[in-house]
């Protein structure tokens, strides 16, 4: 009958490692887990895009679903159900608790929109006002006429 306990050789290898990690003030779990190498911004973006591709969503689709408040079901408008975690993330984002601030995101979206060559038949997107400018205090001012 096979035993569920580790073999003596494995046990003798693991126990000294645990004792050593305890003496260096590391927890056993942190010493047994390999630390992942730091990722660059570009690598993190690629990772997130891979995740979106895995669930077959585009970035705009994800953002639309993420911020969706209501939907129509059987000709009735109903609130979208959000998990507690989803609610916390959205609330943190809008109340300024989580950087970057919403203002910075909106400004980046606006500036990026001016670097895109829109389709010639895209009448809505071509109606953007001139590219952003900042006032003497560094505030976004392109919406002012």
Kindly describe this structure.
Strand 1 and strand 2 form a beta hairpin. This protein has a two-stranded antiparallel ribbon with strand order 1-2. It folds into 2 domains: 41-98, no CATH class; 100-145, no CATH class. It has 6 helices and 2 strands. By secondary structure, the chain is mainly alpha-helical. The chain is 46% helix and 6% strand.
Keywords:
145 residues, mainly alpha, two-stranded antiparallel sheet, 2 strands, disordered N terminus
Mean pLDDT: 74
Structural class: mainly alpha
Strand content: 5-15%
Integer tally of domains: 2
Share of helix among residues? Answer: 40-55%
Q: Report the span from N to C terminus.
A: 84 Å
Are there runs of 5+ residues with pLDDT below 50, and where? 1-28
The number of E-state strands comes to 2
H/E topology pattern: HHHHEEHH
What overall geometry do the principal axes of the alpha carbons give? extended
Question: What is the radius of gyration?
Answer: 26 Å
Strand order within the widest beta sheet: 1-2
How many DSSP H or I helices? 6
Summarize the biggest pleated sheet.
2 strands, antiparallel
